[in-house]
Amino acid sequence: MNKPRVSIITICYNSAITIKDTVESVLKQDYPYLEYVIIDGGSTDGTLDIIRSFGSDRIILQSGKDNGLYDALNKGLKAVTGDITGILHSDDFYPHGHVISRIVSEFESGGHPDAVSTSVSIFRNNDFERPFRMYDATRFKSWQFRLGMQPPHPGFFIRKDMLDKVGAFNDSYRISGDFDWLLRVIRIHKAKVRYSTYVSVYMRDGGISSSGFMSKKLMNAEILRILKSHGIYSNIFMVYFKYFLKIFQLRLF
After folding, report:
1. CA angle (28, 42, 125) in 5-degree steps
2. Using an 8 Å Cβ cutoff, are 230 and 171 in contact?
3. So what CATH class is 6-252?
4. What is the pLDDT of residues 205-236, one digit of tens each?
5. Are the beta carbons of 117 and 156 closer than 8 angstroms?
């Protein structure tokens, strides 16, 4: 049986503080059929030196100016050649060397899913001994898109044939392009998704979508635009209600 080739995409810009952990976590994976595409936005803080210091032939590195987060991700999607693709952000990492092997086994365990959605643990202050919260992928239901909720996207892996159907991220969105993309995967293209409690990614708390009231306001405005563009009814009260529901979706420690 031929084993699938897996592609991981990381986009980064001036990520010198965290990029070493991210790259190391990918390169230590024991799954042999793995390529690692890194899209750098033209870093000036030593990020590129850190990436190049690994000297790995698994890494495909592109560096240059881009037009934002989702433009950079689209460059990554164009570069990958794998049968399965996942995205790992430049301040996140895989907790051990068996993650990709486990992901492949989830795809091969029956039912031929189009995608596998795994859980992520979220940490504060670089304290990786005790999670701040855990985002359990199995708690997500597709109707929750109407509330602006989505599966944990760093733990989402997708087959090439479904990726080809869904296509690129909509780079007209500044914060919520991943919400739009996942909605298209699950609601529009009816992907068969296997949801798993398995924790594949350790995330640092933070990021543009959670970096203050104005970011949340922009994110939720974009979410309403996205839902409307796909003919899915929602309103501002429903979208903001998700912050209450997240108390139940996110496991507090």
Report:
1. 55
2. no
3. alpha beta
4. 865 445 567 888 899 999 999 999 999 998 98
5. yes
